[in-house]
Amino acid sequence: MPFASQQMQSVASQQLSKSDTIKLRNKHIGQACQLFYRSDPLKIVRGQGQYMFDEEGTRYLDCINNVAHVGHCHPEVVRAGALQMATISTNNRFLHDELVQCARTLTSKMPAPLSVCFFVNSGSEANDLALRLARNYTKRLDVITLDHAYHGHLQSVMEISPYKFNQPGGEQKPEYVHVAPCPDIYGGQFTDKLHPNADLGALYAQPIADICERQQAKGQGVAAFIAESLQSCGGQILPPAGYFQAAYNAVHRAGGLCIADEVQVGFGRVGSHYWAFETQGVVPDIVSVAKPMGNGHPVGAVVTTPEIAQAFYDTGVAYFNTYGGNPVSCAIANAVMRIIDEEGLQQNAHQLGEYLLRECSQLKQEFECIGDVRGLGLFVGIELVSDREARMPDTKAAHWVVNRMKQLHKVLVSSDGPNDNVIKLKPPMCFNHENADEFLLAFRECLTTLTQEQLQQSAAAAAAAASSAVTTNGVIATAADTLANKTKMFERQDRLIKSV
Ligand SMILES: Cc1ncc(COP(=O)(O)O)c(C=O)c1O
């Protein structure tokens, strides 16, 4: 590793105390910027593989950074980026081999018609461009998106992100955006419990077909249907079999294009396939990729068919993106894709994912608070509930677990989903068996303690109810106070993490 000594010096020379860092951040960084563990944030000064280290050298097992795909500061990625930076970094209006090689490798991983790339700097930019391509090709405006979806922070993609615009202070949904239900068979509109023998894929695709029909009746059609191939912000959702086939067919019949957002779930994370859309046997018209592609460096891409790219060219308006496709970004993306293959990280995701799912399902047998365990590869969700039969989301429990995992066990997990009660795992792909066991041991401790706490709380509540029934004013206190304190303790656990 060429930089080892400078790297250690740079860590050692972090002069600010943590409290000064917090003060400066509070003063100069917009408060709207999300901060993990806001009441006790982490100051991370170094990363290596699946670990991050704070300013005191404490090691955290990282189960949430799907961006550091091949591992934090992978030496090959660092070397590729540094070498290219020391050689030339300019824009893609000049010929460069890293650019074309990156496009060749990326498209070689996709089904045949997806052979043309546009390089960008982020997932938001990728989805923004994907929308432009679709609107230009179809000459239509309307977009179908899924409930709870997040597609980025630019105005254009915030408008198709119910995850954001449905928040209390969110902006209003534009008329040209149509929201279809999130295909969540555990907690969504059509569940496997309420519809045990139904074709849930068809049921969830029907509202999309209905939107298409209404749009056609109005003579407007649709420009695009955009969806994450597995919805991460929705709470690690695996759509039911046949869903995307049926949805894509309906959209295509209405003359629209299908955009697969693989910003979180691409590059082998799902283990069985390189792209998550492949698990449903569909071929999108446009694919957006980013996050893992740069392993922490800002690079993304839109991949599409020659016809769609040609229509964009035919507008006569040239596409230029100053940093999109610069040689440094492309050298890094090339290194990432090479490492995924060389180190067998997709297979690793497959094997470890199966292990994690098996072990978490075992935990579900033991702990009533686990309502559902789902996932594919190293993309796993564990849904916590307060009533398993009623599938009642337990948001407080999820926050409590996230916080305790960090404070006590130094394991970083996050919570998400419409009720923020799904514990999410999407670690760097170099996560190993030992790491899985470390997570499982810590998680088991949390569930055990949580269950004990909850039992104590219900006992306290029962005692309070009983004593209030027989006691007059003034003496009721103890049991009720204990309960109130415990509730406050739960409430103090900030809304901790959203790992978008
Ligand atoms: C599914 C999905 N799409 C798009 C984006 C936007 O990517 P970026 O933050 O790189 O702009 C995100 C970011 O979290 C995402 O999760």
Q: How many separate helices? A: 15
Q: Note the main sheet.
A: 7 strands, mixed
Shape: globular
Q: How far is the N terminus from the C terminus?
A: 30 Å
Strand content: 5-15%
Bound ligands, named by name, code or SMILES:
pyridoxal-5'-phosphate
* Strand order in the sheet with the most strands: 4-10-9-8-7-5-6
GO molecular function: lyase activity; pyridoxal phosphate binding; transaminase activity
Family: Belongs to the class-III pyridoxal-phosphate-dependent aminotransferase family.
EC number: 2.6.1.-
Keywords: Aminotransferase, Lyase, Pyridoxal phosphate, Transferase
List the helices and strands and how they pair.
Layout: H1 4-12, H2 18-28, E1 44-48, E2 51-54, E3 59-62, H3 75-87, H4 97-108, E4 116-120, H5 123-138, E5 143-146, H6 155-158, H7 162-165, E6 177-180, H8 200-217, E7 224-228, H9 243-253, E8 257-261, E9 286-289, E10 300-304, H10 306-314, H11 327-342, H12 345-366, E11 370-375, E12 380-387, E13 392-393, H13 395-407, E14 411-412, E15 414-416, E16 422-425, H14 433-470, H15 477-492
Parallel strand pairs: 3-14, 5-6, 5-7, 7-8, 8-9
Antiparallel strand pairs: 1-2, 2-3, 4-10, 9-10, 11-12, 12-13, 12-16, 15-16
Helix pairs in contact: 3-11, 4-11, 5-10, 8-9, 12-14, 13-14, 14-15
The site of pyridoxal-5'-phosphate has 16 residues, from α5.
